[in-house]
Amino acid sequence: MKKHKNNIYSSLLKYLLPLRYDLEIKGLDKIKTDSSILFLPNHPALIDPLIIYSQIGNLYPAVLADERQMKRPLLRRLVKKLNIITIADPLKDGISAKKSVEQGLDKLISTLEQGKNALIYPAGQINRSKQSSISGKSGVFKIIQALPNQRVVLIRTKGLWGSRFSYAYSGSAPKLNDWRFIMKILFMLIFNFLFFIPKRKVEIEFVEAYDLPRDTDKKTFNKYLENFYSLAEQKNTRIPDFFWQGNTPKILPEPKNQHKSDPNEQSLELITQVKTLIKKLYELPKDQELDLNSSLTKDLGLDSLSLLELSTALENEFGQAVLNLESLETVGDCVLAAAGLLNESEVIKEIPKAWFKSSKNTRLTIDPKAQNIPEAFITQVLNKPDLPLTVDRTTMKKREELLLAALILSKKFKQIKGKRVGVMLPAVPAVTPVWLALQLAGKTPVMLNWTVGEQNLNHCLKLAEVNTIISSERLIERLKRSGLNLNALPVKWLELEKLATTIKIKDKIFGFIKTKLIRYNLLKFNCNKVPNEAVILFTSGSETLPKAVPLTQENLMTNAKDLINILSVSESDRILAMLPPFHSFGFMVNVVLPLSSGLKVAFHPNPTEGGILNGLVKDYKLSILASAPSFLGNMLDKAKNKNNNETPLKSVRLAFMGAEKCPELLYKTFTELCPQATLCEGYGITECSPVVSVNTPENAIIGSIGETLPSVDVAIIKLETLDTGTLERVKSGETGMLLIKGKNIFNGYLGTQTNPFIFFEGKKWYKSGDLVTMDKNGHLFFKGRLKRFIKLGGEMISLPQIESILIEAYAKHQDAPEEGPVLAVESSGDETKPEIILFTPLTLNKTEVNEYLRNAGLSNLYSIQKIIQVETIPLLGTGKTNYRALKDLIKNTN
C-alpha cells in the first residue's frame, strides 16, 4: 500500500480504539492506492465509521454522511476538516431531502473524477438486523453508472452487532447525543482505569471488487453487495463493560420486530385501492399480483426517494401521514398507512414500568402558595421528582428530567430578542419543557395556529409582536409540503432539532447541578422572574380574524385548580393529549395541568388518527380523554371496527368534550363501547382560560354543558335588554345571553380590538356572545352563538339547532364520510333577506331535508333554501367547523 501524508485524526483513532476493540485488519495491505478508489463498507454500528477511518484516513476519502449525525456536538467540527459531504435523510427529512441527496452524489462523483478517493455506505443507514439490506437503494448504483471504470474496494466489518453503538443493543438507534449514553462511556473508561476495558473482537476485511457487476440492473448489482456483506453476519453478541465481569462474550436474542396491526383485517376495498395506487405510481402491469407481504424494496425495488414519493401519494389519497418511512416496508404496511394504523407500530422497546407506578388514593393538588405555574411545578418536583410526567411512543420524561430540560433550554431562550416568542408545535412532549423554559427565561410564549393560513398567521404575529418562532423540522417540512409558505412570514425560525446540536456539555452539566440543587431544596426557585403574562392564545377565527388573548398565571391556575378538584383527579390518572397547544383546551391539557398538578400526560400530534390514539390509550392505560367530539367520534369508529370484542378503550373512566356540541349519537356510541366510563360535556372559551362549566362524573346530563366551575359566576341576560342599556336576567329555563365573571377571565385583547366587557349589577362581566338556558339544578344548556342566529319573520332562527337535527338524521347515511362532519349550516349573511344554506358532501334532496326539520317540530321558517355540495366540510385545526370558509364559499358561489 502506497504511503500517504499522515492524518492526525486517523492516527489518534488508531491509538484510542484498541482500548475497547481488538482489531484484525485483512487485505488492506494488498490495496494499491495510486489511483482513485470508491470504498463501500457495510454499517453494523455507529462506531464502525471511526474504525474504518482509523485505517484509511491517510487516503483522505470524501465521505458521504447523514447531516443529522454530523450535526452532533462532537462531530460537526470535523465536517470540513475530514472532507465530509453531508446529505439529508429521505426517511427522516421528507421531500426536501431529494435535492440534498442528488447534490451529495454529484459532489462525490466529481471528487472521484478528480482522481481522489471517496466512501459511501450502500445501505444508507445503520443495520436494523444482523443482515445488511441494500435492495432498493440506488446511490452506489448511480455512481457506477456515471463512472463505469471506477475502482471499488468493498469493506466488510464483523463483530459489532450487539455493541452499544448498534441497533441490537436496545432495539433502536443509539442516542449518541444523550448525556446518559455519554456518561456510561465515561464511567466505563474511568472504572476500567482506561487500559483494562474488556475487548470486543472486530474484523475488518478490504477486498477490491474486480468482479463487480457493472453492466447490469440495480437489483442484481445490490444483490452482489448483499451477498458479499452476508459473510459478516453474526449473532447479537454482548461484551462485558467492566474488567471484573470477565471477557466472555454473551449471546443474546435478536431485537424483536416492532408490533404492527394485521393489514388483512382491513376492508377488501381499501386493500384494492392501495394496490391500485402502487401499480399506477410505478407503472406495474394491472394483472400483476401484489401480496401484502411483498417487500417494497426487495420485491418492487423501491429506494428511499421512491418510498418518499409513495408516502406522499398515500397521504394525498387517504389523508394519513407516514411519520417514519422506515416503517413502510411491505405492501401491507401501505394498507396500514392508508388506514391510519401504521404509525402505531412506532413503539418504544418496552413501556417503562415507572409509567404505571402510582397510588390511586393520592389525590393530585396544586400548591396553594404557588404564585405561578413554574413555581407549582417546582413543588411537584420537590414532592416526587422521579414520578413520570410526559410520554409518547418514543420517550418518557420524569418530573426532574423535564425540569432539567427546561433549565438548559431557558439559557438558550434568554438570547432571543423581544419579550414574546412564538411557539408552533403540535401535541408533543417537547411543548411542555419549551413553554416552561420560555417562562424561566422571562418570555411569554405565543401559541400559533398553523391551520389558519398565511394571512391569518401574519396577522397574529403582528398583533403579538413576535419576531421568533420555535418549531420542529418535521412540522415545518410537513407544512411546506402542504403548500403553506412559511418563508413569507417575517420571523426567525428556531428549530428544536438544530437548537439541540448547539447545546454544549458544560450547559448540560450546569443544568444538571442546578436541577439537583433545586430537587434537594438547596437552591430556592426565584418565581419573581416569571412573567405574569403566562401565554397568548388566539380565538379560532371561525367567524372573524383571530383575536389575541393574553392569559395570566392567575387566570390559568384558577381554572386548573377548579378542574383538578371537581374531577377528583388522582396520581393514578393518565390523560391523553391530542389537541394542539394553540387550542385553549389543548394548552390546559398539554401544559397547565401536568406542570401545576403532576397529572401524567401521553401525547400524540395528530388528533385525526383515531386508530393510533386508541393504541396509545390501550398500551399506556390512559384513564382520561380530552377531545373535541369529532376526534372522539373517529376514535370510537376505529374501536368499533376491531374484529375482536376487546375494546382498546377499557382503561378510560372519563372523557371530556369541548369545542363543539356533542351529538346524541356520540353519547350512545361511547356508552356502548365504554360502559365503564362517563362522557362529560363541557363549555369553554379561550378568554376564560378556558373552562366555564363541565358535567361531573357523578352528575352528568346528556345534552347539558354542565354546572359552572366553583370560581366562576354567571348571569343569563334577556336578549331584548342588551340594546336598551338596562340589562335584566331571564326567568328560570329561559334562553338568554351568558355573562361570565371570575379570576379565570382575561383582562382584554391585545391591539385595538374592542374588549367584550359590560357592567351589570355594579360588576364587570365578560360578554360571551353565547345563548344558554339553566335548569333548576344549575345545569347549563348551550343554545348557540348569537352570531349563529338569523332573524326571519320576526323570529330568531338558530342555525346550530337546524344543523344538529340534520346531523342526527344523516350521520348514518351510506355515503357519510368516515371522518369529519356530514354537513354544516350557514346563512347567506344578507340581513334583509337571509338564506339558510346547507353544505354537505352528500347528494341530498332539499324537500326531504326540510321534511326532517318539520318532523322535528320546527316551523316553516326553519327551512333550507339552498344546498351546496362540497367535497368535505372545512375544519379548523381545533376540530371546529370553519364557518368563515363557508361564508367565503357562499360569496364565491354568488
Number of strands: 34
Ranges where pLDDT stays below 50 over 5 or more residues in a row are: 345-349
Approximate helicity band: 25-40%
Chain-averaged pLDDT = 83
The name of the CATH topology of the domain at 8-251 is Glycerol-3-phosphate (1)-acyltransferase
Helix- and strand-based class? alpha/beta
Describe this structure in words.
GO terms for molecular function: acyltransferase activity; medium-chain fatty acid-CoA ligase activity. The chain crosses the membrane at residues 179-197. Keywords: Ligase, Membrane, Phosphopantetheine, Phosphoprotein, Transmembrane, Transmembrane helix. Belongs to the ATP-dependent AMP-binding enzyme family. By secondary structure, this protein is an alpha/beta fold. Among the domains are: 8-251, Glycerol-3-phosphate (1)-acyltransferase (3-Layer(aba) Sandwich); 263-345, Orthogonal Bundle (Non-ribosomal Peptide Synthetase Peptidyl Carrier Protein, Chain A); 377-553, Rossmann fold, CATH 3.40.50.12780; 793-894, ANL, C-terminal domain (GMP Synthetase, Chain A, domain 3). It is 32% helix and 18% strand. A hairpin with an 8-residue loop joins strand 32 (824-827) and strand 33. Helix 1 (8-16) packs across helix 2 and helix 14 crosses helix 19 (505-519). The protein is globular. Residues 345-349 have low confidence and may be disordered.
How do the strands and helices of this protein lay out in sequence?
Elements: H1 8-16, E1 21-26, E2 37-41, H2 48-56, E3 62-66, H3 67-70, E4 84-87, H4 90-93, H5 97-113, E5 118-119, H6 139-146, E6 151-158, H7 167-170, H8 179-191, E7 200-208, H9 218-230, E8 237-238, E9 250-251, H10 268-281, H11 304-318, H12 331-338, H13 373-383, E10 388-391, E11 396-398, H14 399-413, E12 420-423, H15 431-440, E13 444-447, H16 454-464, E14 468-471, H17 473-481, E15 492-495, H18 496-501, H19 505-519, E16 533-538, E17 548-552, H20 553-566, E18 574-577, H21 584-597, E19 600-603, H22 610-620, E20 624-627, H23 629-640, E21 654-657, H24 664-673, E22 678-684, E23 691-694, E24 707-708, E25 712-717, E26 736-742, E27 757-760, E28 763-774, E29 780-785, E30 789-792, E31 795-798, H25 799-810, E32 824-827, E33 836-840, H26 846-855, E34 866-869, H27 883-893
Parallel strand pairs: 1-7, 2-5, 2-6, 3-4, 3-5, 10-19, 12-13, 12-14, 14-15, 18-19, 18-20, 20-21, 21-22, 33-34
Antiparallel strand pairs: 6-7, 8-9, 10-11, 16-17, 22-23, 23-24, 25-26, 26-28, 27-28, 28-29, 30-31, 32-33
